[in-house]
Design goal:
It contains no helices and 22 strands. By secondary structure, the protein is mostly beta strands.
Amino acid sequence: GTYILTINDTIEVPNISKLNGNALLSVKISGNGTLKVTRTDQNSSFNALTIENAKFISNSSLIVNTLTLKGKDASLTTKSTAMKNLVVDEAKYVVNNNLSLENIDVINKGTLNVNGTVSVTNLNLDNESTLIVTGTTGDAISVKNEGKLQLFGTANITAVKGKTGICFASPKSALHLSNTSRVTISGGDFTIGYFNTNDNAKVYYPKN
């Protein structure tokens, strides 16, 4: 099950993590308050963490399988964050380092702003949402495995010199666009690329 914490004030706790043994918590934090984890020597680990219009601050690192930021006032501040899946639902989430994960969903007028590179298998950006990636070292977005990007909203992607805006790891990968897509890719030496074999990755876009 999921533990639900409703917080309407500022609450400080030493740590919030494992229930017992190796069992990871699934937690939903809601309300208009702030939950602050004060310890610096022990990571906070979750199976799933949902932050709905509340603020979560941790002086240590956060490790989570699925992180969901929901609502305009949702906020997350940690020493570092490692996750497999990220959902930005109406929230605005700024990441000031590289992201490497399996799945990203930016939905319901959400905004994901990454000052770093993104390595992902599947990324879904709905038609009302915004993705900003400002690459600092490698390719701005690397699509792992046989993944796909669905960029149906507004995406502004900037690569550094000598790198690629969107780089595919497999010819079975694909970029999907729609009539609502507003995608700008700038900087770097290549806009979209697949460089491993003579095959071509796919870009799907509207006929008209």
